[in-house]
Specification:
heterodimer, A: 288 residues, four-stranded antiparallel β-sheet, B: alpha/beta, six-stranded mixed β-sheet, 10 strands
Chain lengths: 288, 226
């Protein structure tokens, strides 16, 4: 308790240094939060695409149900297909109507006759999509085959790159933060050399003198982490409607508050470690 | 209580102390006299192990000060209160906060510490100034504040380095009276001074240093050798 009182005393006596230390920590944890959002969001996007049908086959109007069933059975017996889903002309119309329910003109123009029946096919492996697609194109009843090629693998490689950039940036900013907090604590120790000398002479132990400086580093770090998280969450909350519109149909939103609280918990833990580590380095360096 | 045996302290610039030997018993009041640079402050620094002797041994109570493990130093400094020549009061803390510092360092609970500080501030006569900062006090009041801080842990030994040095004669006498009262209650006092009047007036033991050497040790001495 007495150490916390002394820590608060130190902070109040030099508000500008405290401000600088908190600001650099805010920047670090803002970047940590943003990359956490990006990584979790992109994982959700990837898993969405992974669960979507990867090949869609549109049938000619003359294709009969038994032709389609035969093709379906043939596909499923090959072992490359994980699932199939048949969408009849009427179902296609129902989907079309749902998607365009706000546009009566579009609804009037389209009937079940002009919409083709289709089969949505998912493969076990991305590389099997091309042979499945080729096989389907050979059928006389197939009008068109659309497959997403390597959407998932492109997204995965993008996410991987983003993750690497994020981790690199976070490590760099953490190092900068450690050095800045360490330097600020070092300056504080130098400023208080007389006070420390007096404390020592009246019988203070080394740790009695050290704790307030270590708590000071932790305080800057935790305050910066909290503010960084608040700013990042605020920006995220503000940008959510635009992002939701951009990612229409992909269930990224709403983000659970539990996730945000877990992120805050993790960041506070990291902040305590960073703050303690940097001030401990300063204490070792300047308080021998 | 305090025993120095052939203690020498060499500095790069010359000798601090050379082969000093003496013993001080519990409850004594001893003047350490000598001109500036004679080694008075060095002697005090060695007793609280703010510095280590080049050779010789120092005993305070049961402790061998030279061999005392680092973690026991706070215990030694609790036993030996020091009134520093430059007072060493923290300018950004009030008199109360300065005085309570040794108790906080020892982990005494706040309520008990407050009681003890109020008692000691009353004893040294500056209770009315408890919430003032050092810059707001006179020289004599600052000296009393330094005494209060040295006394608050009830030390067995009090080292006073030139406590009347910068004071007018009247205030100097008041401080001396205060130290005599503290000594009468059983605290051993070593007072470094070059104030002739004070030493001659008190008729106490006098240890004289000159260029780092002990040149005189008299039971009821005077400033100048008779």
């Amino acid at each position: 308790m007495i150490h916390l009182k002394t820590t608060w005393h130190h902070i109040r006596r030099s508000p500008y240094q405290a401000f600088a230390a908190i600001l650099i920590m805010l920047l670090t944890f803002f970047v940590v939060s943003v990359f956490a959002f990006v990584i979790v969001g992109s994982s959700k996007v990837i898993s969405y695409f992974e669960t979507k049908p990867q090949v869609t086959v549109f049938f000619k109007d003359e294709a009969k149900q038994e032709n389609i069933d035969a093709l379906k059975e043939d596909l499923e017996s090959g072992g490359q297909v994980s699932s199939t889903k048949f969408v009849s002309k009427d179902e296609a119309l129902a989907i079309y109507r749902e998607q365009n329910k706000n546009d009566p003109l579009l609804l009037e123009l389209v009937t079940a006759d002009i919409l083709p029946a289709s089969l949505e096919v998912s493969a076990h492996k991305v590389e099997d999509l091309a042979p499945i697609s080729e096989k389907l194109k050979e059928s006389n009843y197939v009008q068109e085959v659309i497959y997403q090629k390597d959407v998932v693998s492109t997204l995965t490689s993008w996410t991987g790159a983003l993750r690497k950039i994020g981790v690199g940036l976070i490590i760099l900013l953490s190092l900068v933060s450690v050095f800045i907090i360490g330097t600020i604590i070092g300056i504080k120790i130098s400023q208080k050399r007389d006070e420390i000398e007096i404390m020592r002479l009246i019988g203070a132990t080394y740790w009695y003198i050290r704790w307030p400086f270590i708590f000071e580093g932790i305080f800057y770090s935790v305050a910066g982490a909290l503010l960084g998280w608040i700013v990042a969450s605020g920006v995220f909350w503000y940008a959510s409607p635009f992002l939701a519109a951009f990612l229409r149909g992909i269930p990224v939103f709403p983000v659970s508050p539990v996730y945000l609280l877990i992120l805050l918990g993790g960041e506070l833990l990291l902040a305590i470690c960073l703050g303690a580590f940097s001030s401990f380095l300063a204490v070792l360096r300047y308080l021998k | 209580m305090i025993k120095l045996d052939n203690v020498s302290k060499l500095y790069g610039t010359g000798s601090g102390l050379t082969d000093v030997t003496f013993t001080i018993e519990k409850g004594e009041f001893v003047f350490i006299i000598g001109p500036t640079g004679s080694g008075k402050t060095t002697l005090f620094r060695l007793i609280i192990r703010d510095s280590l002797p080049t050779k010789g041994s120092i005993t305070v109570g049961d402790w061998d000060v030279v061999k005392l493990p680092h973690q026991k130093l706070p215990n030694l400094r609790k036993k030996v209160g020091v009134i520093f020549q430059d007072l060493k009061l923290l300018s950004d803390r009030t008199i109360f906060e300065n005085t309570v510092l040794p108790l906080e360092v020892r982990g005494v609970n706040a309520l008990e510490a407050k009681k003890q500080v109020e008692l000691v501030l009353e004893q040294v006569g500056i209770a009315a100034h408890r919430d003032k900062f050092p810059i707001q006090l006179s020289g004599g009041e600052l000296q009393r504040a330094a005494i209060a801080r040295a006394l608050v842990l009830s030390p067995e030994i009090l080292l006073a380095d030139e406590p009347t040095g910068n004071l007018d004669p009247k205030t100097g006498k008041d401080i001396l009276k205060l130290l005599s009262d503290i000594n009468a209650k059983g605290t051993t006092i070593l007072m470094a001074t070059h104030n002739l009047e004070v030493v001659d007036h008190m008729h106490k033991r006098v240890i004289a240093l000159e260029k780092g050497k002990l040149v005189r040790d008299e039971k009821k001495g005077k400033y100048d050798s008779s």
